[in-house]
């Protein structure tokens, strides 16, 4: 405990770090305040219980409840994330985008500009769909056409405002702004989830179990979080030796570094892609009433065995697919060769590329299986009697985002402390990047 207070004191002594943390907290406070502002022309008292389920419930969680509150920030940063994913995939498939990626800072600015324009287009389309399908008719106080046009402008402006807040945090705050905004939205639902679970166990609306069951659930949640951290942090270090160069009286190179190949290089993307496909059966039954009661109903129930097995299979498949298109062993091998590096015992060039590809294939399978287990844990938690709201935190996209964002922010704070010769946040821990210097060529590839 003393070490913790000493570390917090050291953080406060670094003026730049203190200002960045305070700025980040201020921006997040502004975001949470604005997220409670309801759309113009909507009667908040007429919304009633507007809670969402399925993919809409997931979007509502990412938006911190703004989606169900019909807030001006109802769409949050999701259109921006969708645009970023599209541009990223275009950078893999379209030669002109690949060229922009290799142009350095100027190419990055062009890609960011394209992402912003695409965000506006996606937001406009989603705004129209949101107003027509998610806003209760009895809550609208304006004529339908006027309300549609006005709300489209306001929702688009709201998404751009959130995107601007995220960029400000990234530039002048600590951590990745967009990720922090999503994390705050998820955490905002945690007190409500804990309150519901407490009431279900030991409150007035108790369903049995008592305090012992609640304690066991908290312990299980802690174990799941630790397991998720292991998956996010897990890497396979491939050693890289650099040739010695003598320039004058000085020696360059000759050091051994490593390529940190992540066990879960795909991150949360396989779960997002798989979830998008798993909501197709429910959408089909909604638009084609005759399909209701058919075998498709098994895939609309998130707690059914058929749903869980199919979901897990899709996640494993998408993990291999996304890893294959984002991690390029040939490019890593070429970069290593240009910089005079080689893997001990492996010939440069094609042999190195084959070796790296084989290592990636071997570590991707267990990573994909573990990712699938994390994704279906909320469904398993519901089977054990845990409330749906609290079960969301036992795995899936929300838990992976929470763990990833927290670790990334801790790494940045750690780097500030070490630069000022203070002990880091986790002196005896294993925060990725604290010890050792990874090969430069791997940073671009990962």
Automatic annotation (TrEMBL):
Keywords: Cell membrane, Membrane, Protein transport, Translocation, Transmembrane, Transmembrane helix, Transport. It is a multi-pass membrane protein. Pfam families: SecY. The chain crosses the membrane at residues 21-39, 70-94, 114-133, 145-166, 173-192, 212-235, 265-285, 305-327, 363-384, 390-410. InterPro entries: SecY, SecY/SEC61-alpha, SecY_CS, SecY_dom_sf. The keyword Transmembrane helix applies. Belongs to the SecY/SEC61-alpha family. This is Protein translocase subunit SecY. The gene is secY.
């Amino acid at each position: 405990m003393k070490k913790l207070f000493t570390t917090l004191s050291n953080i406060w002594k670094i003026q730049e770090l203190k200002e960045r943390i305070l700025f980040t907290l201020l921006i997040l406070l502004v975001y949470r305040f604005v997220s409670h502002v309801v759309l113009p022309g909507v009667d908040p008292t007429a919304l009633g219980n507007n809670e969402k389920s399925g993919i809409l419930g997931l979007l509502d969680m990412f938006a911190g409840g703004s989606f169900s509150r019909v807030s001006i920030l109802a769409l949050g940063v999701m259109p921006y994330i969708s645009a970023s994913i599209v541009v990223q995939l275009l950078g893999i498939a379209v030669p002109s985008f690949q060229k922009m990626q290799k142009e350095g800072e100027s190419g990055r600015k062009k890609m960011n500009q394209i992402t912003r324009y695409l965000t506006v287009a996606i937001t406009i389309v989603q705004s129209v769909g949101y107003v027509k399908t998610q806003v209760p008719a009895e809550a609208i106080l304006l004529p339908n056409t006027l309300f549609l046009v006005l709300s489209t402008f306001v929702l688009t402006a709201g998404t751009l405002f959130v995107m601007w807040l995220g960029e400000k945090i990234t530039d002048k705050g600590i951590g990745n702004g967009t990720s922090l905004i999503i994390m705050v939205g998820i955490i905002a639902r945690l007190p409500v989830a804990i309150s519901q679970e407490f009431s279900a166990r030991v409150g007035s609306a108790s369903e049995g179990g008592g305090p012992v069951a609640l304690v066991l659930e908290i312990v299980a949640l802690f174990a799941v979080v630790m397991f998720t951290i292991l998956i996010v942090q897990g890497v396979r270090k491939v050693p890289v030796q650099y040739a010695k160069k003598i320039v004058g009286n000085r020696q360059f190179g000759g050091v051994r570094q490593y390529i940190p190949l992540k066990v879960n290089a795909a991150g949360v993307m396989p779960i997002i892609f798989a979830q998008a496909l798993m909501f197709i059966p429910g959408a089909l039954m909604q638009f084609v009433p005759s399909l209701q009661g058919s075998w498709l109903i098994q895939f609309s129930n998130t707690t059914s065995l058929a749903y869980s097995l199919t979901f897990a299979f899709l996640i494993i498949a998408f993990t291999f697919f996304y890893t294959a298109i984002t991690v390029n062993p040939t490019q890593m091998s070429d970069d290593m060769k240009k910089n005079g590096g080689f893997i001990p015992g492996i010939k440069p060039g094609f042999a190195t590329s084959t070796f790296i590809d084989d290592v990636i294939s071997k570590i991707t399978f267990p990573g994909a299986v573990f990712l699938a287990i994390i994704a279906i844990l909320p469904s398993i938690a519901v089977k054990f009697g845990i409330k749906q709201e609290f079960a969301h935190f036992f795995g899936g996209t929300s838990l992976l985002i929470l763990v990833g964002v927290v670790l990334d922010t801790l790494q940045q704070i750690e780097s500030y402390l070490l630069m000022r010769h203070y002990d880091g946040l986790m002196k005896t821990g294993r925060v990725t990047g604290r010890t050792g210097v990874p090969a430069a060529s791997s940073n671009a590839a990962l």
